[in-house]
Amino acid sequence: MFLVEARRVIVVxxxxxxxxxxxxxxxxGADVYASGFTGVAQLISSVFKEFIGINIGTGVLxxxxxxxxxxxxxxxxxxxxxxxSLLAVVVMTIGxxxxxxxxxxxxxxxxxxxxxxxxxxGVGLTLKWGASTGGMDIVAMVLSRLNxxxxxxxxxxxxxxxxxxxxxIYEPSNALYTLLTLxxxxxxxxxxxxxxxxxxxxxxxxKAQELQAAIHDKMVRGITILPAKGAYSGEDxxxxxxxxxxxxxxxxxxxxxxxxxDAFTNIVQTTGIYGFFRRDG
Length: 281
Prior knowledge:
This protein is an alpha+beta fold and about 280 residues long. The protein folds into 2 domains: about 1-190, no CATH class; about 200-270, Alpha-Beta Plaits. Helices cover about 65% and strands about 10% of the residues. The chain has helices at about 1-25, 35-50, 60-75, 80-100, 110-130, 135-145, 150-170, 170-190, 210-220, 250-260, and strands at about 200-205, 225-230, 235-245, 265-270. The chain has a 4-stranded antiparallel sheet with strand order 2-3-1-4, covered by helices on one side. A hairpin with a 6-residue loop joins strand 2 and strand 3 (about 235-245). It is elongated, with a radius of gyration of 21 Å. The two termini are about 30 Å apart. The relative contact order is 0.14.
């Protein structure tokens, strides 16, 4: 267990540093924006610099924006997820402030593409290991749970605002280059970890009550428990049936491994659901 958590910490730190590299070495110098709260921090920094004459680092603004979001995530998403997300935000903030802002290329398309690839790799690795880069990730998860709208819709709205603002502050072409970066970032994230999908977990176990209690202690999700019988052994078991987001898949796998390592689990993609996707309380 210690080795698993140690690897998770290392991957989260590495992913956060990749995001800092993408911003300081490719995107900021080219006036191209990243997605989510990182892009918002870039925009605020640009506005202060261009119109007010005050130079505030993107890393500092990113950290400030994430303070209320981390508190929201702590109470509404889960303590473990939020702790690792906070680690990612802190490391990314330090990286942004410690690394110089460089222009490795004068070609804005190269900056947009390579910045998007590196940022997408950082975010995708972080998500794959059960954390996030904070900001819009956590806000979208909470809003999605409240009204069961797709997480991707909130990212679309936020990124749309970033793209339009980039076109207003600079040239319309900057908005198009920002759109290119967001597209590349999304494609890379999808290749590493599809974050906007729901999945259905079917768990065959001898410890249904223990698993149910452990899952509800960690997640706000409804569970259906059905009787099951082993065809070969004839042993009476139970099947836990629940729908989760891919964000929560890492935590579910960890819970099953801790409570019943002998459980058989089938994870399938869910294209749509009707009814309640959460439990109250």
